[in-house]
Amino acid sequence: MESLKQSNLYNNYFFANKRDLEIASSGAASISVSAARIEEAEQIGPKYEGNKELPSSESAFVNAIDQSYLKGFLSLKIMASQSYDANSAANQFNRAFGLNQQGSEIVRPTMYCNKYPWEKAKDLFGKVSNFGAQMPDNKMVK
Predict the structure, then answer these.
(1) How crowded is the C-beta side of 42, counted as CA atoms within 13 Å?
(2) Closest CA relative to residue 49, chosen from 61, 40, 58
(3) DSSP string over the chain
(4) For residue range 41-68, what is the model confidence (pLDDT) as tens digits?
(5) CA–CA separation, 77 vs 1, rounded Å?
(6) Percentage of the chain with pLDDT > 70?
(7) Cα–Cα dist 2/25, whole Å
């Protein structure tokens, strides 16, 4: 089934990503692909041309993004702590009955499920001509 999957990905600008594209595969770790190498990914196609990193000369799009949201997104930090006590009563009981050991983990991101302000989302359409979401032609809108 994996070999039958096809996804088109064309004429996109990518910016501020650690990974531009994540390809999930069954039974294996996901594959990270940078924008410059998308055409090498066998799972993408048949249309995959025109994907690039956002050039620094295209400041119109970055300037249109809500600045407080962008600042929070770019300065995201994740604090995590784990604890595991092999000699806890629960783990000794689990071990005696051949059950899984237990531990705990706490993850605290500085930005979690912060939705982009929907009132400002429309300002992003068409900021870069021919790339990403575009405003529809007036001829097509009735």
Answers:
(1) 4
(2) 40
(3) -GGG--B---S-EE-S-S-SEEEEETTEEEEEE-GGGGGG-TTB-S--TT-EEPPTT-HHHHHHS-HHHHHHHHT--EEEEEE--TTSHHHHHHHHTTPPP--EEEEEESS-S----HHHHGGGTTSSTTSSS-PPPTTT--
(4) 767 777 777 778 888 887 888 888 888 8
(5) 37
(6) 86
(7) 7
Interatomic CA distance for residues 131 and 104, integer angstroms: 44
Cα dist from 100 to 16, 89, 91, 107, 133, whole Å: 39, 13, 8, 22, 48
For residues 62-83, one letter each, b for 16 or more C-beta atoms within 10 angstroms of the residue's C-beta and e for the rest, the string is: eebbbeeeeeeeeeeeeeeeee
pTM for the model stands at 0.53
Of 14, 18, 49, 56, whose CA–CA distance to 35 is shortest? 14
Q: Tokens 């620094």 sit at which residue?
A: 56
Amino acid, res. 79: M
Burial 17-30 (b: 16+ CB within 10 A, else e): eeebbebeeeeeee
